[in-house]
Amino acid sequence: MKQVWLELPERSNLFWLNIIKWIALRVGRWLSRLLLYPITAYFVIFSYRTRAASRDFLRRVLGRDCGWVEVFQHYHTFACTLLDRLYIFAGQGQRLDIRMYGLEVLDHYARSGRGCLLVGAHLGSFEIIRAVGLLQSEYPIKALVYGEGTPCITGLYQKLNPSLFKDIIYMGGVGSLVGLEEHAREGGIIALMGDRSVHASKRIRCKFFGEEAWFPEAPVLLSRILDMPLVLFCCLHRGDGRYEVWFEHLADPPQVVRHQRQAAVHGIMQRYANRLEHYCRLAPYNWFNFYDFWQSDE
Questions:
Q1: 89 in any annotated domain
Q2: 296 in a domain, yes or no?
Q3: How many domains does the chain contain in total?
Q4: 242 contacts 124 by C-beta, under 8 angstroms
Q5: Element counts in the chain: helices (H) and strands (E)
Q6: CA distance linking residue 280 with residue 69, whole number of Å
Q7: Is the dihedral of CA 282, 284, 289, 293 positive or negative?
Q8: How many other CB atoms sit within 10 Å of the CB of residue 70?
Q9: Strands 242-251 and 230-237
């Protein structure tokens, strides 16, 4: 069964994306940031489903009804992270102020030769961790992804820096698990998202902002198969070009018998949901799942 987020169409226009790229890299950041305002307004006005999802999430995280101003800020924050990714992929990361917290957790597993599973979210900018892994050779990071919901945007980034895409493993692709096992044996780090479920048979309900929502089982199942600990990763947008990157130990690989496996998966993913909620409250406009995350079982 397809999930709602897989069915959302990409609304990006390649011509205007290239115009923004040219302005951002050739003219200056100031003008490209100004252009984000009319672009944001366009998407807020003409994207009814995502606008409704934004308002629903903001109501939960802020604890009050939200209107156009809050939704605009939510969209605008997303647009800012997309712009900043241009600089990351273009090798101009020095334009950004990126501050790391808990890096010793990642460093510990990288130096131990054991590696770890980095579990992120559609919160802030996930791509920054891929850039950090490339620039700092002690962090060999491969990203495990499922398809691509924004091929125009991704294609633009890929042209800027193809090297940042050579370490992507597509979930379900031929030999994908083999590639992961080899990387794990070498003590590498595998990064994946933990806040979108794909297959209906491999997901679990966890409490999130007081109501149950679907989360994938994949992070925990991979942790068990590859015998790798789980490390939570969040990168929060904190204003004009400023980011906070957080790492924290989430869980060790579950060592349980078969009949205990479901309870172990639920316990770890519930811990992930709790920590994700914590970081969403720290930066309410950073969560970019613009669909009905609390959808029913249907």
A1: yes
A2: no
A3: 1
A4: no
A5: 11, 9
A6: 18
A7: positive
A8: 18
A9: antiparallel
Average pLDDT, consecutive stretches of 10 residues, N- to C-terminus, the chain (298 residues)? 42 60 78 89 90 96 96 95 84 83 89 89 83 63 69 63 68 63 84 81 91 94 92 94 94 86 94 98 95 77
Contact by Cβ (8 Å): 113, 280: no
Report how far residue 105's alpha carbon sits from residue 58's, in angstroms, rounded to the nearest whole number.
31
The torsion angles phi and psi of 192, rounded to 5 degrees, stand at -150, 160
- Could you give the C-alpha distances from 279 to 11, 136, 233, 237, 291, in angstroms and in order? 28, 25, 10, 11, 19
226 inside domain: yes
């349980």: which residue's tokens?
A: 256
Q: Which residue has the tokens 């990409």?
A: 10
Structure tokens at 215: 């989360």
Domain that includes residue 232, residue range: 4-286
Q: What DSSP string describes the chain?
A: ---HHHHPPP---HHHHHHHHHIIIII-HHHHHHHHHHHHHHHHHH-HHHHHHHHHHHHHHHTS---HHHHHHHHHHHHHHHHHHHHHHTT-GGGSEEEEESHHHHHHHHHHT--EEEEE-SBB-THHHHHHHHHSTT--EEEEE-S-S-HHHHHHHHHH-GGGGTTEEETTSTTHHHHHHHHHHTT-EEEEESS----GGGEEEEEETTEEEEEESHHHHHHHHHT--EEEEEEEE-STTEEEEEEEEEEPPP---GGGHHHHHHHHHHHHHHHHHHHHHHSGGGB---S-TT----
Place of tokens 């999930």: 3
The CA–CA distances, whole Å, from 51 to 32, 36, 46, 74, 290 equal 23, 17, 9, 10, 7
Alpha-carbon span 67 to 48, nearest angstrom:
13
Whole-model pTM: value is 0.87
Residue 193 included in any domain: yes
